[in-house]
Write a structure and sequence with these properties.
Elements lengths: L1 H7 E2 L9 H9 L18 E10 L10 E2 L2 E3 L2 E5 L4 E6 L5 E6 L4 E8 L2 E6 L3 E6 L5 E6 L9 E3 L2 E5 L5 E5 L5 E5 L7 E2 L6 E3 L2 E5 L4 E6 L5 E6 L20 E3 L2 E5 L3 E7 L5 E7 L4 E4 L3 E5 L5 E5 L5 E5 L11 E3 L2 E5 L4 E6 L5 E6 L10 E3 L2 E5 L4 E9 L1
Parallel strand pairs: 3-8
Antiparallel strand pairs: 1-16, 2-35, 4-5, 5-6, 6-7, 8-9, 9-10, 10-11, 12-13, 13-14, 14-15, 17-18, 18-19, 19-20, 21-22, 22-23, 23-24, 25-26, 26-27, 27-28, 29-30, 30-31, 31-32, 33-34, 34-35
Length: 390
């Protein structure tokens, strides 16, 4: 627990010479009381992940907690590394189409749309590259570090930053069209959920435990709901960040909070259909009938889309820093902090397949597209898999 909090917590208002590690020591005690990750047990393998191609992207995350996830647009896959390298690859073969060195400490992206590849940096840069050749289209400064993937919506680029603000930038030149500015608590987790954009609405979560919808065009607030309310006497106990990406699926919004809730809301009104107590900083995914959540203990849950009732729970990966589950070919795939991929049955959660990609771990959610699953390891190894029965 102590090690995880030291890695994830940002105390933006701490002053003087206090360091993050010393502050965590003072709150949690000087000893590292992290719980060890569960050892992997033998499984009854029924499927296997077959690697179709892999390649070295660069330094990957460079051992930083950043949000660099592959993005698919048409026949191309776009990917970036922490030291500023951005690549376009043929999605089927992994062949490089172009590569550029931005030399920026990239922390989020890429987002793709309207002919742009958009990324954010730890130095508050937002850059837009041409999808055709990677040439720079524009570069602007945001309010603070960008940890949410920029979203492109028709003529706007939506950028949410670590200081709680969310802005709409012009696709043409990056000029700010609107800004919604919010305060953040003294203590927050390091991370920002990526806004969901659909039907002219931007749905974004905040470190206060609130979820809000804004007009993508003008930026005015349409609705706001408190998914979790801070409770407890210490700032640590009161953390209720929404760091997992809100998911918009049809007319519903699904969201999780740390030390709070998982909930389903109506997209247009924010009215709550159901909620249940659960703590997650990783987030969730959905398919046609279930919601898949990785909780703070790395337990993976399947919940009913309609009621939130538990379908199954898989706890064999406890404390293994499991990613957001990714539905794929009738199964659910997660990566873990040791670099393994685990294939779970969507029917009962049984682990039915496993392979290893990256000894430095996997923190980025896998990306499923058609019959291919793209996985980006922390060391910069990017691989594409298909799933076959055994």
């Amino acid at each position: 627990m102590r090690r995880a909090l030291a890695a994830l917590i940002t105390a933006g208002l701490l002053s003087g010479c206090t360091t993050m590690s010393s502050w965590v020591d003072s709150v949690l005690g000087g000893d590292d009381n992290s719980l060890p990750p569960a050892e992997l047990q033998k499984i009854d393998a029924r499927v296997r992940l077959v690697k179709r191609w892999d390649r070295d992207v660069g330094v990957g995350t460079d051992e930083q907690f950043v949000n660099l996830r592959p993005a698919l647009d048409g026949d191309n896959l776009y990917i970036a590394d922490r030291k500023g390298r951005v690549l376009a690859l043929d999605a089927q073969t992994g062949k490089e189409q172009w590569s550029v060195a931005t030399r920026l400490p990239l922390s989020a992206g890429p987002g793709v749309g309207e002919g742009l590849v958009v990324l954010g940096s730890s130095d508050a840069d937002v850059i837009a590259l041409s999808v055709a050749d990677g040439s720079m289209r524009w570069q602007v400064k945001a309010r603070s570090e960008v940890l949410a993937v920029p979203r492109v919506d028709i003529d706007k680029v939506i950028v949410q930053t670590a200081d709680g603000s969310i802005a709409g930038l012009a696709v043409a030149d990056g000029s700010q069209q609107w800004l919604n500015d919010r305060s953040v608590p003294v203590l927050t987790l390091r991370g920002t959920g990526t806004p969901a954009v659909q039907r002219g609405l931007v749905v974004a979560g905040f470190a206060t435990g609130k979820l809000a919808a804004f007009s993508a065009d003008k930026g005015f607030q349409v609705w706001e709901e408190s998914i979790a309310i801070p409770q407890g006497r210490s700032e640590l106990e009161r953390i209720v960040d929404i760091d997992g990406d809100p998911v918009v699926d049809a007319d519903a919004v699904f969201v999780t909070t740390f030390q709070g809730k998982v909930a389903r809301l109506d997209l247009q009104t924010g009215a709550r259909a159901w909620e249940r107590d659960m703590s997650s900083s990783a987030g969730l995914s959905t398919d046609f009938s279930q919601v898949y959540v990785t909780d703070e203990k790395s337990h993976v849950w399947a919940l009913s889309r309609n009621t939130g009732a538990t379908g199954w729970k898989q706890d064999a990966l406890e404390n293994r820093a499991v990613t957001v589950p990714e539905p794929f070919e009738g199964h659910v795939v997660v990566g873990d902090g040791a670099g393994f991929l685990h294939v779970l049955s969507r029917l009962d959660g049984a682990i039915v397949g496993r392979t290893e990609l990256d000894g430095k771990g996997i923190q980025t959610r896998p990306l499923a597209a058609g019959d291919l699953l793209y996985v980006y390891g922390n060391s910069g190894r990017l691989a594409a898999y298909t799933l076959e029965s055994m």
